[in-house]
């Protein structure tokens, strides 16, 4: 059972780790990527719901689940936009760091996490280490990339996108249903945001008629696989929330490295060493924030 639990827990490593690289590989505009990815997620979630006995939420639980998915859709649109400025291999560690910061601060402010002074000191040191790790992943040997206009623009975009990711993680906490039950309505919320965005950008070309949009459905399968395996892994009878979360964060390593090697977002030898150290710092510090009691 433990081996099975670990394998399921590593599902996000493959799903979330390859999702940004696959989406970037297929290409297209952010609107093509978000429409295709959310439709792929909806298909995956619908198939899962058809073969499970989780039921479908109603009332406020349904509303919160849809809001959660809509939040992710907004955040992911911004993230796809940031790929155009700095590539997925640099954007993913930054957005992961921001999501970890957002989730941790929300836990401290709203949920009473890190109750003692020593807990807060350790926790905020860990958050600082996460920021250092993110900076290391975009460090440039020639000193230009880390101060470029594109990087500053991408960081601002990713900070804005964090609003959506915060809603994605925070809204379900007010719901009384489990993550697997909320999975399908979350996907519906994602598609709603994607369709609205598609209609808004219609003047630049109809994304619903472009082939690349429908190819991006495949990237949505990767995201959905990562999301579902995380929800299963986080259950008490599997890995539990803390271990499941840590295992899921390993996805930033694959997302970064696959972007470097599969999308030719190359780095020098020194930059690769610094990047790998930065990724390790992010994952380790994330683990610290989870286990502070």
TrEMBL record:
Membrane association type: Multi-pass membrane protein
Domain of life: Bacteria
Assigned GO CC terms: endomembrane system; membrane
Annotated SUPFAM superfamilies: Multidrug resistance efflux transporter EmrE (SSF103481)
Any one Pfam family match given in the protein's UniProt record, by short name: Sugar_transport
Compartments reported by the entry: Endomembrane system
Molecular function terms, GO-annotated: carbohydrate transmembrane transporter activity
TM ranges: 6-23, 35-56, 62-80, 92-109, 121-139, 151-171, 183-200, 212-232, 238-261, 273-292
PANTHER family listed in its UniProt record: TRANSMEMBRANE PROTEIN 144
Similarity section: Belongs to the GRP transporter (TC 2.A.7.5) family.
Protein name in UniProt: Ribose transporter RbsU
């Amino acid at each position: 059972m433990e081996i099975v639990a670990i394998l399921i827990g590593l599902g996000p490593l493959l799903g979330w780790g390859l999702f940004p690289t696959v989406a970037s590989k297929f290409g297209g505009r952010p609107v093509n990527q978000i429409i295709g990815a959310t439709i792929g997620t909806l298909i995956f979630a619908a198939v899962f719901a058809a073969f499970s006995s989780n039921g479908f939420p109603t009332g406020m639980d349904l509303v919160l689940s849809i809001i959660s998915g809509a939040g992710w859709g907004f955040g992911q649109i911004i993230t796809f936009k940031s790929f155009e400025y700095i590539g997925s291999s640099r954007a993913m560690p930054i957005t992961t760091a921001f999501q970890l910061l957002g989730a941790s601060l929300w836990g401290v402010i709203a949920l009473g996490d890190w109750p003692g002074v020593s807990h807060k000191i350790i926790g905020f040191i860990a958050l600082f280490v996460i920021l250092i790790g993110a900076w290391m992943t975009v460090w440039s040997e020639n000193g230009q990339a880390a101060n470029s206009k594109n990087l500053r623009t991408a960081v601002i975009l990713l900070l804005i996108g964090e609003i959506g990711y915060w809603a994605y993680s925070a809204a379900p906490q007010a719901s009384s249903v489990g993550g697997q039950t909320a999975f399908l309505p979350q996907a519906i919320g994602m598609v709603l945001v994607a369709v609205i965005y598609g209609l808004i950008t219609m003047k630049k070309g109809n994304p619903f008629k472009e082939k690349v949009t429908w190819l991006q459905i495949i990237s949505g399968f990767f995201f959905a696989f990562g999301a579902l395996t995380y929800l299963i892994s986080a259950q008490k009878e599997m890995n539990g929330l803390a271990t499941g979360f840590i295992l899921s964060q390993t996805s930033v390593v694959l997302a970064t490295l696959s972007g470097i090697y599969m999308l030719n977002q190359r780095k020098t030898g020194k930059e690769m060493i610094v990047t790998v150290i930065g990724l390790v710092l992010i994952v380790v510090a994330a683990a610290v924030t989870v286990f502070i009691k």
